[in-house]
User: Fold this.
Amino acid sequence: MSWNARALDVLAAGPPTPLIDFPVPGPGIRLLLKDESAQPTGSLRHRHARALFRQAILDGLVTEGTTVVEATGGNAAVAQAWFARRLGLPYIVVMPGERSEARARAVEELGGECRFVTPPPAIYDAARRIDGHFLDQFGRAAHHDLAEELFAQVRPDWVVTGAATGATSATLGQWLRSHAADGRPASGVARGPAAAAHGRVVAGGGEWRCRVAVADPDNSAYFPGWTLDTPDYATGMPSRIEGIGRPRIEPGFHPDLVDLVIPVPDAAGVAAARHIREVTGLPVGGSSGTALWAALELVERMRAKGETGTVVSLIGDAADRHLKTYHDDVWAAGKGLDVGRHADELRRRTSV
Assistant:
């Protein structure tokens, strides 16, 4: 068997991640959490990393011995280092800022190499100068297998995710548009309120309606850019919510594949992350909390309209390190986040 064939076997999909019932008041509406923290590297970035490696191998850009390079500072680096190790490939990640042993350790323990660069925006040019294949998670389209897996498990009315690269919302939207009941192709489908007319899909011997919502934190460009239909919108401001929110709209985000973008205050996302931990025991980060807050808004809208159905919110990155940040009152106060006010609202929204 060739190296490429063996590599593709390594990159085969793993077992499905679980769905967790999350309590919401009233009959007829179900809220489910798709728990991506069950992935081997503990986050939704695991799927994206696998997709990036698979596409690079299929395109002939990565072969046996190729050095793989990325520019990122988060969970993507851990997931990519995990796959590089299993493929026997050298892996180098360029991270923003001064060297942090805590950030580097998780990658280096998997055999990867971390290089730190300042100022932070310089990481992309620095990565391109390294001799190897630049995965470029923000610039390359690599749709992963979440949609096939999720829609085999459940037929939701809404799926809610945060946005960083935009790959997850694009993967979900592409799948739904390709299975549209009216046969319309994915390209050219209207975004925003007009897209809801194309929300019916046919799959698995049945037909149902499903739409994609993106939860966007403070300072991020996705909500204003989507609302104003401005694909090059930029805020120039960093997100306080690790893993989601971008100062610019990234090339992987496709507004025509998203039905709704919901802005979520950072304090609300942090309060919701704590609530997930209270209910499930999972110490998730702010990105999971942000998605849950948006999902609860959709539940309230459905209830107000007398609708029934199912909402799925993606969660991931459940790690003890979050106990010292999102789940810590001193940290939240230092960031100027009034979590208590939103915690009271959460109790009202989820009391059963």
Observations:
- Confidence is low (pLDDT under 50) at residues 185-198.
- The chain has twelve helices and twelve strands.
